[in-house]
Amino acid sequence: MACRFGMVLYVISQFLAFLFVLVATPIDMFRPKGTSRFGNTDCLTLWGEKKHCYSTVYDQKSSTIWANCPQRGLQFLVAAVLAVISIFVYGLAFILGFIMLFCCFCLRWVCLTLNIVGFGTLSVVWALMVVVYYTDDGTPCPRLSQKYHFGAGFALFLSTWVRDIFSILYLLVTFNATDPHRNKTPKDAKQQ
């Protein structure tokens, strides 16, 4: 029963990871200093700049904003691509975790692999945003920390990344603790 309860928690955790990454990808990575962190103000996302952050319309695309900063433009592009990959990784981990809850406990290996891949992709996404925030690339590309603070999307990516550490540890612990065929002798197998 403890294993089943643990698996339910794992599936809920994977659903939250999927939801957080899905929500974080299109919303703000950075908000201008002196404005509300949650208001409908200017913001920078992985895809560009919005004058009204709750809008679906981008006033400037990332390629336009970072036209004079090719390194920074590449960092935003890589972060955006890896964020989209993370959506699929965590979505698949949730679906397979749900299947694993009712049958096919052998899927834990696949779920572990997906969690490790998701951990890696999110590591790069939030690390690139931290680099952009603190790195001064010259006059046309000042560090974003001068004008911006981190936004809600960044916080969701980082919280999902931290939560993923616990999911990976849980799956590693359950490998040895719940395998019904582990530690059986050939004599035990013949009796069944």
TrEMBL record:
InterPro entries: Amastin (IPR009944). It comes from the Eukaryota. This is Amastin-like protein. It holds the Pfam family Amastin. Keywords: Membrane, Transmembrane, Transmembrane helix. It comes from Leishmania mexicana (strain MHOM/GT/2001/U1103). The chain crosses the membrane at residues 7-27, 76-102, 109-134, 154-175. The keyword Methyltransferase does not apply.
